[in-house]
């Protein structure tokens, strides 16, 4: 039976039915393929390899080789890695807030922009990745250093609006740079709403880096509109070194909390917390450590040690210490009075709280 030139032929299939995938950086001519992606590995893959084979080969590389590969990519793309800082500054100057997102740590590029463009301007930088953050302290700093006004520690929303009015009255512009707006300590509605109130002021320009892909879920429509971000993409491919520096302490705290052993402040944060507390609050912590012991102190004990002079003052200090997760409450089985004990591990009490001296 006569057949045509192409009839009856079957195309040979490659083993496993896998189609070839060109190596990274290959051009039209395979001889011109850029081997820089693989040259730091133990052995470069063949010219034709499957995606699965390439993935397994990369997984087999040692950790330091992976880091060197990522650094090689970053160095090769260095000419294109610097963001358009002039565009960022133009957007901030015209009243827009800038949200920076993308793959990799953006701390370096944001700090570089702040140093080069905002160094001589009123600028405050805060870190959302820190293991401790005090909203009232931030508002007090802005009010004192930039807005030249005073704020209340009890109502952050009212304080933020007061700062915005003071800046508007004085015709003063300021810049607020936020590393990791979606950091673990920043995800509460109170902090996000307070920052959005500041961002909505025409006198406050916000530049914030964002890492989590679902950060808009933190906001309702009013908060998102108040931030008013113009998003720019910056893929640095850099590791999150500073952002994860306290990860071990946080994970250790969470593990002990799950086991029911400890649910206080992160171990690495107590010293930072004491740095922002008042002398009277720190004195209360020290007396709780020295005199309270395992039993704790009642309100009458606080008055006896001259820690407070009124019930209102007592409630204010207790509320602030509770906010930082430094206190634990229990009831005296004999009298029913509330007992207050430190919610901090003994090692931290001896290293940070007991040696404290009033300044």
From TrEMBL:
UniProt keyword Chloroplast, yes or no: no
Highest taxon of source: Eukaryota
InterPro entries referenced in this protein's UniProt entry, alphabetically: ORC2 (IPR007220), RecA-like_ORC2 (IPR056772)
Function noted in UniProt: Component of the origin recognition complex (ORC) that binds origins of replication. DNA-binding is ATP-dependent. ORC is required to assemble the pre-replication complex necessary to initiate DNA replication.
GO-annotated biological processes: DNA replication
Family indicated by similarity: Belongs to the ORC2 family.
Region (Disordered): 1-49
Keywords in alphabetical order: DNA replication, Mitochondrion, Nucleus
GO molecular function: DNA replication origin binding
Name of this protein: Origin recognition complex subunit 2
Chief site of localization: nucleus
Species classification: Eukaryota, Sar, Rhizaria, Endomyxa, Phytomyxea
GO cellular component: nuclear origin of replication recognition complex
Subunit structure comment from the entry: Component of the origin recognition complex (ORC).
Bias (Basic residues) ranges: 7-16
Location of the protein in the cell: Nucleus
Domain Origin recognition complex subunit 2 RecA-like: 84-233
